[in-house]
Amino acid sequence: MNDHLESLLRRGLTATQAPEDWAADELAVSVLRRRRRLLRRRLALSLVMAAVCGSTAVTSWAVTSFGTPTSANSNSAATPALATLSPPTSAEHTTAEGTLVGAFGAIVNQAGHRPVLCKLGGTPAVLRNTPVMVTDFHRRVCSAFRWPACARQTSHLLMP
Amino acid sequence: MEAVDFDDYCAARGRALVRLAYALTGDFHQAEDLVQAALMRCYGRWSKINDHNSYVRRVIVRIYVRSSRRRIEEPMAQVPDRVDVANQGGSDDGAIAYALLASLPPRQRAVLVLRYLEDLPDEIIAQQLKISVGTVKSQAARALGKLRTSPILPTLTQWESP
After folding, report:
1. Which residue of B has its CA nearest to A7?
2. Best mutation target, B8, B15, B45, B101, to test chain A (most A CBs within 10 A)
3. Distance, CA of A97 to CA of A136 (rounded, Å)
4. pTM for this prediction
């Protein structure tokens, strides 16, 4: 029975042929055409994905750069950035750094604005502030440390 | 390694590939689609392939098994108890053989096709299907056992008897 079955399968499968009108010469052409179509589709998909990623990146950059809050209840915009605060070089300044940060934080919390931070020997970092606030910050923080970059007090007032 | 041109290979081996795919799928249009998909996949690395026949055959079988697993089963309006041999194209043996193969799951069908159509030993079938030799043997035995109890088989004995 098993031999019959196996011989039947062998005979039946080998007897089958492709239709006579089927053109084997066109197989390569149709394969290449289909491959080109697939590549075009993949390219289009990649371009769409790149456009989506690019627009997402530009949107996020615009939101963070121009300070447009994403939600009305967002408090993160009022948080000050301390990264540009350069540490004092002398031992005296090092001991007073805690006071500086504390005073700085107190100013921000009370006024709700971002003050201008002064870099040692460099251009003051630009942050949003009002002139009153800048002056107040310079008087209370920068003057206390006598930083060289703060000699030009007018630069603070010119900050936007 | 002998450089084989893609167009020449398709022209020379196209019919054999379609026959293999037809034995797997049981439908000529699906077979043609399967061969095209396999050749399309092979085209990108054509110059790096050593044995084109073996490679293309392996891709055809694997695509068939994988796609058959994913395919949603389509309900048939009526499942025939017996094969109407007169309505099948080709030889009577072919009609019965395809009717028998149609009742098997994809992997068992692939094992039988590679064994009886391509005449491959179990070791090569195992490589082609990426399974062990023991699995090939068990799948073949299970498939043949299932076919032996098929209701189509009385027709077979009737045809076999003089």
Report:
1. B116
2. B15
3. 18
4. 0.59
